[in-house]
């Protein structure tokens, strides 16, 4: 199996995992009647705390790989910008935005990845990459119904939260590729979460999260969904994500954000019996075409 083929396989697997994350976030916050269980902050804290606990043994073992304080700094950048703060920003945003719109806004990650790579890491930008980004973004607009005048609930504060998260994702992506190349995928993920484990559990405690189990009968069911989100949508996903960066590039890895809305739409059709329109299929084709254009025959650095 070639490196390119493995990269595309990993990309589709990651899209499947993260495409379901928006639903898991909602299930962690609300019951079937739409009543609140955990707050958005509590879901974010629990997600990070559980992920930190799962990755702690691997992180302790990987501490021997650290030889300089700068490596600690870059690992903290990956942990905070790539995981900790976005976990809170996305759950906050989903209190007011639909999952479809949240998925669409998440697709700004490749834009920020490209911009940061160019401005900070002096990476060359090709015209076809920029063109491919806009084509893929247009496909997402079609997919979520922007061009069909679908009703959207928009709060600029919550939109800004996702845009800030995507800026952080772009920072983390480039840091992994250009500052942590000597580390393996498991080492990066485990060390990043190990450094965040104690702050995450302190945050969980300070948010009075444990009291929810005494007052809400749906708390354990919500915890089940949050645990799935933590283990698969955070730990496993980050391992795959880091591996994609190692195999290809930050731009290729960030392209997963274009695939996520496709998965979200398909899940909506099968799980919630939502209507599937021909325009959505067109949107999917446009997205895949844009992603392919962005990543075809890139100049290697």
TrEMBL record:
UniProt KW Transmembrane keyword: yes
SUPFAM superfamilies: Multidrug resistance efflux transporter EmrE
Keyword Cytoplasm: no
Protein's cellular compartments: Membrane
Keyword annotations: Membrane, Transmembrane, Transmembrane helix
Residue span(s) of domain EamA: 9-144, 161-295
Superkingdom of source: Bacteria
Pfam families per UniProt: EamA
Mode of membrane association: Multi-pass membrane protein
Transmembrane segments: 7-25, 45-63, 72-93, 99-121, 130-148, 154-173, 185-202, 222-240, 252-271, 277-295
InterPro entries registered for this protein in UniProt: AA-Vitamin_Transporters (IPR050638), EamA_dom (IPR000620), EmrE-like (IPR037185)
UniProt GO cellular component terms: membrane
Principal localisation: membrane
Annotated family: Belongs to the EamA transporter family.
Protein name: EamA domain-containing protein
Organism: Fluviicola taffensis (strain DSM 16823 / NCIMB 13979 / RW262)
């Amino acid at each position: 199996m070639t490196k390119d083929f493995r990269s595309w396989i990993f990309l589709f697997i990651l899209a499947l995992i993260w495409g379901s994350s928006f639903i898991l976030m909602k299930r962690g916050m609300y019951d079937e009647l739409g009543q609140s269980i955990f707050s958005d902050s509590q879901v974010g804290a629990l997600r990070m705390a559980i992920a930190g606990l799962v990755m702690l043994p691997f992180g302790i073992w990987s501490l021997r790989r650290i030889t300089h304080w700068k490596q600690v700094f870059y690992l903290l950048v990956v942990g905070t910008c790539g995981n900790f703060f976005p976990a809170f920003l996305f759950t906050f945003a989903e209190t007011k935005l639909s999952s479809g719109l949240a998925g669409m806004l998440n697709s700004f990650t490749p834009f920020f990845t490209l911009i940061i790579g160019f401005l900070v890491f002096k990476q060359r930008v090709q015209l076809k990459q920029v063109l491919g980004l806009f084509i893929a973004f247009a496909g997402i607009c079609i997919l979520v119904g922007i061009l069909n005048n679908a009703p959207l609930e928009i709060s600029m504060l919550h939109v800004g939260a996702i845009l800030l998260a995507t800026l952080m994702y772009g920072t983390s992506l480039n840091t992994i590729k250009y500052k942590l190349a000597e580390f393996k995928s498991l080492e990066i993920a485990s060390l990043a979460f190990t450094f965040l484990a104690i702050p995450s559990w302190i945050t969980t405690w300070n948010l009075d999260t444990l009291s929810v189990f005494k007052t809400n009968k749906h708390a354990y069911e919500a915890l089940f969904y949050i645990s799935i989100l933590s283990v698969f949508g955070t730990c496993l996903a980050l391992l795959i994500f880091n591996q994609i960066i190692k195999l290809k590039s930050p731009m290729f890895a960030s392209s997963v954000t274009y695939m996520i809305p496709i998965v979200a739409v398909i899940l909506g059709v099968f799980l919630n019996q939502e209507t599937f329109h021909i325009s959505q299929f067109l949107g999917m084709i446009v997205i895949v075409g844009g992603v392919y254009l962005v990543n075809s025959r890139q100049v290697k650095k």
